Here is the input.
Amino acid sequence: MKKLTKLGAVSALSLMVAASASFAENIKIAFIDPLSGPFASTGTNGLHQFEFAADHMINENGGVLDGQMFEIVAFDNKISPKESLIQLQVAIDQGIRYIAQGNSSGVANALTEAINKHNRRNPDDRVLFLNYAAVDPALTNDKCNFWHFRFDANADIKMDALTDVMAKNEDIKKVYVIGQDYSFGKAVAAAAVRDLGSKRPDIEIVGNELHPIGKVKDFTPYARKIVSSGADAVITGNWGSDMLGLGKSVIENGFTGPIYTYYAAGSGITGAFGESGKGVIRLVAQGEINPPATDAAKAFYDGFLAKYPDGNVDQSRISNVIGMLAQAIEEAGTAEDVVQVAYALEGMEYDSMWGGKIVMREKDHQAIQNVHIHAHTDEGITYAYDSSDFGIVVESTVEMAAMDSPTTCEMKRP
Amino acid sequence: MDLILVNLIDGLVTGLLLFMLSAGLTLIFSMMGVLNFAHASFYMLGAYFGFQISLALGFWMGLLIAPVIVGLMGAAVERYGLRRVHQYGHVPELIFTFGLALLIEELVQFVWGKNQMPYDIPDILNFTAFAIAGNSIPAYKIFMIFISVAIFIGLLYVLTKTRVGMIIQAALSYPRTVEALGHNVPLIFMGVFGVGTALAGVAGVIAGPVLGTFPGMAFVLGSIVFVTIVIGGLGSLWGALVASLLIGWITTFAKSYNIAMSDVLGAVGISPPANLDDSLLRDLWTVTSPQIADILPYILMVLILIFRPSGLFGTRNS
Here is the structure.
């Protein structure tokens, strides 16, 4: 009995010490993304942008609350959901309360489920999931939960904007849809078929297929099918080396129409496409890079490029993740109680560095913002990618895209 | 019909590229009895060196110089690494090459970063050679075919018709006798290892612009190279060629045609269950050939190992 009391006293004391120690510590954000393997470049660029945004926007301005600094802690998940769950556990064990992840919706699906479960079982040790790039619509629909926030426009919203633009192009009669064989690729394909069907029923979908993710060595056979199908345009959600492999192959084998993409910029892809991608690659994304929208955005890009001369600001929405989190922590008055922070994030209206507003929709935690269609070109470029002459320029804009779009999310709040 | 011809050409290009990689690997294996896990890493080095040299001196100098550098590095690895490890047996050798592969990947990331490199096809070859029913065949592909075939013929000639080839072949089977005749066997080993890695380097230089030059490129090709030499028969040059072409064509055709598993099963008279969603075998029924194209070589390997363990052209067990 005595032993037990002693044990209790010691553990209570150590808990107190740990709690008071963590109060003075940095606010840590676990960055769980691929830092090795075929998608390493995408993950590493994201990490750099997180680190820069934290320093540039928060730490250099004195931090949040009483001078608490943001600290990004990197975890390599090798793009594997299984590995991600292990890293998540490590991060939680280290006392980290904010989990940032973006590459691969497959990973995001695993993480959101694990975090939901963890928070239910450990009410004293909850964490928030800051999803900065995984755009599978299910994450803010059927699989939504209170702990998950998505800062990127989801695949449906992007496809909505993309098909708005395509619908106006009378030259497009046949479309080929191709993507990676997992939840996100399927979501893109489904959205493309649905949106084109309702906006331009005369457009024929001449191909709709999925290929294994990260395993295709040579995309030539796929390119052959696309060319011989007589398609006028291609839609793909591919990213990383899959995007480059597919795009290069399609162009090399004689395709001249537009390729509408989600992720064909930066991370070496723009540089590798170079001249061949001009007039072909179209990209849907939020946050204009060229022309720079505001002085704040300009300062951000300049600062980032000064620190990472070879880097790209290809995921500038990361600045919103950091900015909105900081604002939420200020409003909640605490970084420890993530329930308060989550309530502050819900419904938040945030002035982005691009000048526009971003609304974190309360009912499903989906950020609503302006979405642009960019063109890959070397004309009118202030901020090129990959130390090349090429970059992306805004061609058209959809204001507050899909603001009233329906959601099937039924969120349980603590 | 036209598409078949186009696919034959595409498969040929893929296959011949694979051959260049596996030829070096199978040469090294037959000589030292060691599966060089770092072989695909030398291919990656070839691509990166080729890219770097092409920035300064153009593509053609890259094609000339990069394989030489890779070959010299390979020779150095044999001389100062493998030869020392060799005395402890095969397992340490395997582990050594495995470690080397990881080291090279880290090194490449350290020097060039993790991004894709803008390594492009040279302008002089950047045009359409000809088109078959609207499918253009890039001139670069024709160039790749010529290089690969030239290398195969060259290798075959050196190995079977020249004095050097005879000494090498003799050194593979009877190293002590050859040594007693006054030939420097360790030097021959080093030379063959160097040539083998240089071949991987050539493959890297010419594949880099087409398949992408990035730190994961060795990883993506690593395992398929071993599959190739197992199917072909370890140590056989002809086997490597036939297996490479076989794999090239199988994967290309499987990706080009959307053959659904249900069609195949239907053709042999098995009809799908009434309600697919309830069936345990649902995935089997809905799978299509492009989805499993990259697994087919592995299935082929397993079948070969079961029915002909020495490979198509292998002589090791006889």
Summary: DSSP finds twelve helices and 15 strands in chain A. Confidence is low (pLDDT under 50) at residues 17-23 of chain A. Residues 2-24 of chain A form the longest helix (23 residues). Residues 277 and 376 of chain A are 7 Å apart (CA to CA).
